[in-house]
Amino acid sequence: MLLTATLAATAQTPERGFYKDIYMDGGVNLTSKEYLPAARSLMLSIEKLRVGTKKLGVTEVDTLVQHRTFVGNEFDENGILLYPDGAPRYRMLFVNGGLATAHGRSQGKDGIDRVRAFVNAGGGYLGSCAGAYWATTGADEHPGNEWYLGIYPGECTDAHLQDTRVGLTIPANSPMLRYSDYGGDMHIDSIYHNGGCYVDKSKLIAGAEILFEYDYPPKSMHGNGAAWAYKANAATGRVICCGPHPESVVTGERLEMMEAMVQYVLEGTPAPAIKGELKPGEPRTMACRTSDNNPALTRIGDKQYHHFTVNVPQGTDTLKIMLEPHNGLSNYDMFLFASYDGPAMMGASKYRNMSRGVKKELEIVNPKPGTLFLSVFLDTTVDTEETQYGTTYKGRLDVLNGVPYVIKTECRNRP
Fold it and tell me: What pLDDT sits at residue 340?
């Protein structure tokens, strides 16, 4: 409980460098949910897409809304999941149950590529039922599905079990035990299962880990992975596939299960990436757009950090760090931070300038020689409203394509 409270208390701080914590995909041919109980209990920020479902049917407008959300539109050429430089805009994506292949087909190759790019850039992924299928390369009976993501680079197996309650056991080495003891019996009762999948232990790929196992002797799913995790490398996000449905439960061990998976995905967030080293006296102009395909010099997005370093020479008397608007675009609030203790964040930087506007500077007298970490943070962001299609934006839509700026440093040496 203390661990959960600590994570919740820090979940939404700007130190994370993300616009928000979770985006929930209730898109075409998926279940469209109003809210995610685990996000509420962990006090995580969340936005969502809610369009045509497998029950209500799909309209052309539903598909268009989904495409404009994931792939891009006139206000946001990069899609909602990604910042202009390709970094993940949310900490994780949650994908609901429904029809995996049909959802993938509705996303098209461009939408699929956006989700893959999100995970490859460090965004986490959690999918239940159809969301679990969609993350894999295909089911055993239909391998190599072109409409699946392949962010878990292995197959799953169809359990062939509909509308049933099943049990789960927690392996002794499962990282899920960091968050709860699930009543002390290593077992979760009566979790809903409706057409979900499992991973055969004998086919688990290298680097993957089983989080929960099915306890359902009548089927071949018994003893195999009900939920499993995979993280390709230190720079990518963690992926969790979950065959059953804990996502709508509001209390008890099944909620604790969902909370644990969310927290484990978020723990897999990579360390902040450094854009590059600033050379004293050489301005660095961050003005490229997404389509320029130059992330190292691309504009900054809302609630995002851009991280840099500067090498402070021995004997430096004064170091100046200057942030300036590009081409007069100054109607934004950008903050400037510096730290010797790793990437400079809002709540943990010795040097900071959080005045309004873009133009500002930091002056450090007698700076310590060596590597100094700098960061720029864009505080200006969009306003939101909830509609029949989920979360939509209004207000400062201009930040979605990024805000340009110029950053430079100057060193004054002792005589």
Answer: 95
